[in-house]
Amino acid sequence: MVQERTLPKFDIASVQITKAEGLMLYEDMVLGRSFEDKCAEMYYRGKMFGFVHLYNGQEAVSTGVIRAMRQGEDFVSSTYRDHVHALSAGVPAREVMAELFGKATGCSKGRGGSMHMFSAEHGLLGGYAFVAEGIPVASGAAFQSKYRREVLGDPNADQVTACFFGDGAANNGQFFETLNMAALWKLPIIFVVENNKWAIGMAHERATSQPEIYKKASVFNMVGVEVDGMDVLAVRSVAQEAVARARAGEGPTLIEALTYRFRGHSLADPDELRTKAEKEFWFARDPIKNLAAYLLEQNLASEAELKAIDQKIQEVIEEAVKFAESSPEPDPSELYRFIFAEDE
Ligand SMILES: Cc1ncc(C[n+]2csc(CCOP(=O)(O)OP(=O)(O)O)c2C)c(N)n1
Ligand SMILES: [Mg+2]
Questions:
Q1: Which ligand has its closest atom nearest to the C-alpha of 132?
Q2: N or C: which end of the chain has fewer CB within 10 A?
Q3: Whole domain around residue 276: which residue ranges?
């Protein structure tokens, strides 16, 4: 069995968090998990088609990073594993579910499906199905913020972009080319690699000469940090530093979050390659259970308050499914719309 990489230590005593912040982080992660569980159910009931990649287990990364940013102002780019990034960015669950059902009310008007969540309103630059495809797109968004601020003199153009991708994507050429430019031009961007140890059935260590991805930042003269991606408070802490660095014009950061997907690569994957011991190592580090325990121990929440959030989220998810089911299909007469930008 492959030895598990040692998760970086985090000084939990350094955390300063209010009750409201703690509950917000908990609610966002529960929303992500419950949404994905419902998705699996709906997929197996034949409500959605094509590949569907779930995010269970990785919630602390989405919540920790995106909830350290400005909702609706900053930008987020994702991969084909994008539902939960969309939710953390504030896209309503009903619009994400409707997109999965291919309905006209979906956030991409039913044209994208699972792998192509998009919302201009929420700064969501899209889910991208080609591995590493979002890296240059996100960097373009960061470039335009910098250009508007420094060249066009717009003081409000201080948006930060978070660019999420997997360990597999970090072996793709676009990663190297784009990180070079982003560092050279000091772009306001955070590259977040979600190292879940696997690229479909390829183990990261088997495919990668230097598996510690954060170290690759140094060759671009960029800050690189590794973080326990199962600990939302740790992720949030490194994300806050990276956001501040980007906003201050001090350039990009590469964050490597060590995490694990609790399900197969997609809902079509029987998940037979990963060992039971490996899965159990990571299941024991469930980020939602971790945060719940912390909030209870610090008297930042009671069992009843956490239960009330779980209940509220169940209602949100049920409503999202009803909305998706009762929404209309896209009208065939609109087949050629939304290919190019249109005037509102
Ligand atoms: C350019 C490109 N090559 C190959 C594929 C097929 N493919 C889909 S997902 C995937 C694995 C990517 O793994 P990783 O980046 O670690 O993301 P994860 O699925 O673990 O979130 C591959 C090779 C693709 N989508 N795009
Ligand atoms: Mg991976």
A1: 1
A2: C
A3: 50-287
